[in-house]
Design brief:
Length: 148
């Protein structure tokens, strides 16, 4: 039996999830596939002994996919998990901002405007502390893409 390269599979499924996220229009089947791929990526990062950064990113991506698919309970649960992991660990500040963007997205998908605004403000507060222009631009583009 060949050993499983969980890191490679985690990255492969992460990228496949993004291929579906990037589609302008998805079918319900593609929404389910998108979420399944995000969960598969997450599980492989767990199996690989992923870092806090890997696991916060995985939870963030599950939340992102779930929000886009309209599965708001799943989106909120995983966005909260991403924020908790990011805020409790030594991940870069841009990643903490990104986690709060994910929670803002989940709240927007759930129709909770007040909580959305709180998370957007927290994300922006963190972004103001990020020195790298590319990292700031990435998270800002995520924030700008939230359907409200």
């Amino acid at each position: 039996m060949n050993p499983v390269d969980h890191r490679a599979l985690g990255a492969q499924y992460f990228n496949a999830t993004w291929d579906l996220i990037d589609l302008a229009d998805r079918t319900p089947a593609q929404d389910r596939d998108m979420l399944t791929l995000a969960f598969a990526s997450r599980q492989h990062w767990i199996e690989a002994g992923g870092s806090d950064e890997n696991l916060a990113t995985s939870d963030w991506q599950v939340a992102h996919a779930a929000a886009l698919a309209g599965w708001t309970d799943v989106a909120l649960a995983f966005a909260r998990a991403a924020v908790e992991r990011a805020d409790a660990s030594d991940v870069p500040t841009w990643m903490k901002a990104s986690a709060h963007e994910g929670l803002a997205r989940a709240h927007a998908a759930a129709g909770d405007k007040a909580s959305y605004e709180i998370e957007v403000a927290r994300c922006r507060e963190l972004l103001a502390q990020v020195d790298d222009e590319d990292d700031r631009a990435l998270v800002q583009s995520q924030l700008d893409s939230i359907a409200r």
